[in-house]
Specification:
This protein is an alpha/beta fold. It has one domain: Rossmann fold (3-Layer(aba) Sandwich). The chain is built from 6 helices and 7 strands, in the order H-E-H-E-H-E-H-E-H-E-H-E-E. The protein has a 7-stranded mixed beta sheet, sandwiched between helices. Helix 2 links the parallel strand 1 and strand 2 (57-61). It is globular and about 55 Å long. It starts with 18 loop residues before the first helix and ends with a strand. The mean pLDDT is 93.
Length: 187
């Protein structure tokens, strides 16, 4: 796992995932060296970087030009850039162009998250895995309800990482990066 402080980030791109959350995403995805991965709304590329060291190929998708640039820098510095294709366009258009993939990592942060989930569901290989990340409570409920209607049995994991801050009178635990991870396997 790459240390959080080793990634280049910016305040303009939200959604940076702490290393503890990235490790759980890797575990939930059950990534293999033959897998092709979509990292949708890749942000600064922390997920793409981790998957680039384990998977056959990674598509890092983000419509922000700044995100695509920073992702490329982070992957080049910490991952395997030869295994990554960075796609700088909206999620639905990018997914439509990709014919073969085994894992879809979706950072649900925009209002089109249900459309993105449906598109990934339609196109993912049989027995593919989808891992959805969000920290918006309404999104969590809607995602679980939609997946249930699609005959999936979603696994829901809520994570709250706390780090200690040393004070004069002891250690204060401060919560950082609360996240819900919803994972499914295509049947």
């Amino acid at each position: 796992m790459i240390n959080d402080f080793d990634f280049r980030t910016t305040c303009d791109i939200s959604g940076f995932l702490k290393e503890e959350i990235r490790s759980i995403v890797l575990y939930k995805s059950d990534v293999k060296d033959s897998d092709i991965v979509l990292d949708i709304n890749c942000g600064v590329g922390e997920i793409s970087t981790e998957f680039s060291k384990l998977a056959q190929k990674v598509y890092a998708i983000d419509e922000s030009e700044q995100a695509a640039t920073i992702s490329q820098e982070n992957i080049r510095k910490h991952g395997n850039i030869d295994k990554v294709e960075i796609i700088n366009e909206d999620e639905l258009s990018a997914i439509e162009k990709i014919e073969n993939f085994d894992i879809g990592i979706i950072k649900a942060k925009k209002d089109n998250y249900i459309e993105v989930i449906f598109k990934v569901h339609e196109k993912i290989n049989s027995k593919g895995r989808i891992v959805i990340l969000t920290n918006i409570l309404d999104f969590e409920v809607n995602i679980v309800n939609e997946l249930s209607q699609m005959n999936y049995n979603p696994k829901i994991t809520q994570i709250n990482i706390s780090n200690g801050i040393l004070l004069n009178k002891g250690i204060k635990m401060e919560s950082q990066n609360p996240m819900t991870i919803i994972s499914i396997k295509k049947r």
